[in-house]
Amino acid sequence: MMTEPTDDLHRDRRLLIGASWYPEMWPPGEWPRDIERMRELGFTIVRLFEFAWHRLEPAEGEFDTDWAVQLLDLLHEAGIAAMIGTPTAAPPAWLTAKYPEVLKTDARGRRATHGQRKHGSHISQRYRALAGRIVTVMAEALGDHPAVHSWQIDNEMSGRDFGQEAHAAFHQWLAKRYGSVREMNQAWGLEFWSQAYSDFSQVPMPTAEVGSIEVPERHHPSLLIDLARFNNRQWSDYIADQVHTIQRSAGRRVPITTNMVGSMAMDWFAHNRHLDRVGSSMYKDVDHYSWNAITFDRMRAEKDYAPYWLLETAPNWSGGGRVWNIHRNKAGVQAMAWMNVFLGGSMTLFWQWRQHWAGQEMQHGTHVTATGRWRPNRDAWAALAERFSQHGAWLLSRPPRRAELAVMLSTEAAWAWSIDPIDQDMRYFDRIRDDFHLPLVRAHLWRDVIEPEADLSPYKVLVMPLMPMVPESLRKRLRAWVEAGGRLLLGPYTGHRSEQFTCFTDREFGGLEELMGATSATSFTPMWAEDRIYIEFADGTHSATRTWCEAFEPTTGQAVGWYRQPASARGHAEGYGHDTVAVVRHRLGEGEVITLGCRIDEPSYLHLVRGLCGAAGIEPMAHGDGDVLVCPRVDGSGAPAAWGVVNLADTPRRIELHQWQTGTDLLTARRIEGAIELRPLEAMLLRPD
Questions:
Q1: Which CATH number characterizes residue 674's domain?
Q2: Burial of 385 (0-12, 13-18, 19+ CB in 10 A)
Q3: What pLDDT is attached to residue 5?
Q4: What residue numbers bound the domain in which 512 lies?
Q5: Are residues 37 and 116 in the same domain?
Q6: pLDDT score at 132
Q7: N or C: which end of the chain has fewer CB within 10 A?
Q8: Residue 8: inside a domain
Q9: pLDDT digits (tens, 9 = 90+) for 579-594
Q10: Same-domain status, 140 and 174
């Protein structure tokens, strides 16, 4: 049976599974064969048309949607839903030939050529108008078809344009933001190196090269931050234009999404505010499945626990040029899919259904070959479809438990560290993932990943590291949250830059001192001396230091950690920061803030987090191997209803769940008592007795 039209844009009735399909590559006589194969697997949704602009508009103003309606009719008869992609990532040749100004220009002034994808400029007003026209035609022709489940905007959007129109738009944006060149010069401190401008038209659009002896100096950081803000505002407007066009022109309202990608050059938090659902492409391999957790934890929290959608992962391997053996075997495919579902997803789409018989991605993994033969993992896809059908409604009525612990992820912090890195390894997202989020996953502490604009009230503990710019509005919200009982682990490297990405000239932390209960004492680098500098905590434990050290002078806070770098018997002199304060605890109202002066080792970090969680009444969900992902689900009353567990390792693992004695693995109907033994990459859906 075909799914009913969506009544609630933020709820799902069943778990969906399917693939991206490009029927425009094949004659209509082949379509029934492919659809029958999808039915054979139990697939319930396909993603369509995202690159089909030429087929839908073969010449300017000449539209052909009859073939698309015919295809949707076939899918509807087969009980398969459709996600419609707007085709604006791949403009046709007639468009780029007639309107070459819509092509993106790179930083060296070279214009993109036809035959790629994402070669149109999201800033070009003509391109936006032409994109709006094809989206209008599609929405009017297809928007009320009963097969249509949802819409996807464009495809894996990203990138910048450095053309003349982009320059002019940037200058207009600056004029609106600052009002006058004088105000901009003052805000950015442009007397340095005589960088001051006399007209907005003089401001360049540079790239962010890291300055060193080997590489020419990078451009002004305030300019680069604002350029990133401008580019992302243009992307948000581009997305909003298409969303509004669909809402205005389609016959009925269904959810709208898009497939974000991993780069933090894009402010997906801002872009996703225009969309009904959060979606993503994800291609981490079996050795790095744990890296997916940060994205799933983010997607779950971003729309207040509305089910998110995994819109692309490989059905076996992945490749355009080099071929990546992503999942390796059927156990890997199923582990990835269950990880998605257990953490809060309701859709798993593979890329792609049928091998392209021509073009750039013929080597990519697919379900069937160009000749129609099955590729590896057929039994895995069918097993997932069967289990989704059996347990989907039950799972969706028992959503993930609301987390009370969160890690803050800031897109602007990612830009800041790419523009002005503190060392050669300062890749912001990697550091957040590996140093601050992944340890929580491995310690089985249930958590969300949230943006700076997020509502803080659901959380009892917040981890907020590596965030140079903390806007005044966030500082005020943090203080109110802490005073009401929140527990904050602040830093390191947080709050030391203004919103223009400059140093503060009154206090080093620009007002964050009131939250910290301390002021700055000094700062120094342990680089080349890490083996001699460490932190000693008040309880006698120690931690290594890394990269950069801030030392504090407590005011209303209490010192709980000190830098130690004494003179040594080998003749090393006493170093920077010896005996200065490295960690401050500040009791504020009903809550507390612990401020870190530098990056610390994982055991010390977890010790601090566990202490804050214990004070807030947050306990680990399990103990045992950190390679086992644990995902709590609750019933309508909030009581524990199930645990999804996935072994992310390709060797056996073991854990013991707290609040668990006996029950059943719903995926296999096996009885489970006591400790849980998992085979390599095995997933279980555990329901307690």
A1: 2.60.40.1180
A2: buried
A3: 44
A4: 405-431+452-618
A5: yes
A6: 98
A7: N
A8: no
A9: 999 999 999 999 999 9
A10: no
Three-state DSSP state, 222:
helix
pLDDT of residue 583: 98
pLDDT score recorded for residue 572: 63
Specify if 117 maps to a domain. yes
| CATH code, 563 | 3.40.50.880
Tell me the pLDDT tens digit for each residue of 295-305: 999 999 999 99
> Does residue 482 share a domain with residue 525?
yes
Quick one: tokens of 560?
A: 């709980």
Phi, psi of 75 (to 5 degrees): -65, -40
Q: What is the pLDDT of residue 568?
A: 62
d(CA 478, CA 501) in angstroms, rounded, equals: 20
Q: Is 111 helix (H, G, I), strand (E, B) or coil?
A: strand
d(CA 176, CA 646): 51
Compute the distance between CA of residue 52 and CA of residue 117 in angstroms, rounded to an integer. 12
Structure tokens at 57: 């508009």
Q: Are 266 and 410 members of one domain? A: no
Q: Do 107 and 179 belong together in one domain?
A: no
In a domain, 369, yes or no: yes
Whether residues 202 and 121 fall in one domain: no
Tokens 């804050």, located at residue: 612
Instruction: Kindly report the number of other CB atoms within 10 A of residue 666's CB atom.
Output: 18
Q: Are strands 518-524 and 653-657 parallel, antiparallel or unpaired?
A: unpaired
Residues 6+ apart with CB under 8 A from 228: 265, 412, 415
Closest Cα partner for 147 from 44, 285, 262, 231?
44
Spans in the chain with pLDDT lower than 70 = 1-7, 208-217, 568-573
- What is the phi/psi pair of residue 81, to 5°? -85, 165
**Domain presence at residue 682:** yes
CA distance 246 to 436: 39
Tokens of 675: 């400790």
Residue after which a domain boundary falls, among 618, 644, 662: 618
Contacts (Cβ under 8 Å, ≥6 apart) of 485: 460, 589, 590, 591, 616
- Quickly list DSSP for 429-471: HHHIIIIIIHHHHHTT---EEE-TTS--TT-SEEEE-S-SB--
Residue type, 322: R
Cβ density class 208-229: b for 16+ within 10 Å, e for less: beeeeeeeeebbbbbbbbbbbb
Contact 269, 302 (CB under 8 A): yes
- Domain boundary residue, one of 618, 650, 666: 618
User: Which amino acid is located at 299 in the chain?
Assistant: M
Q: For 287, which DSSP code?
A: G
Place of tokens 């919103």: 499
Contact 628, 678 (CB under 8 A): yes
DSSP 338-360: HHHHHTTEEEEEES-SB--SSST
Would you state the structure tokens that stand for residue 168, as one six-digit string?
A: 């002019």
pLDDT of residue 621: 97
pLDDT of residue 569: 56
Same domain, 125 and 24: yes
Q: Does one domain contain both 323 and 471?
A: no
> For residue 437, which of 474, 403, 395, 402 has the smallest C-alpha distance?
403
What is the side-by-side order of every strand in the sheet holding 45-48? Answer: 256-257, 148-152, 81-85, 45-48, 16-20, 345-350, 308-313, 279-281, 259-260
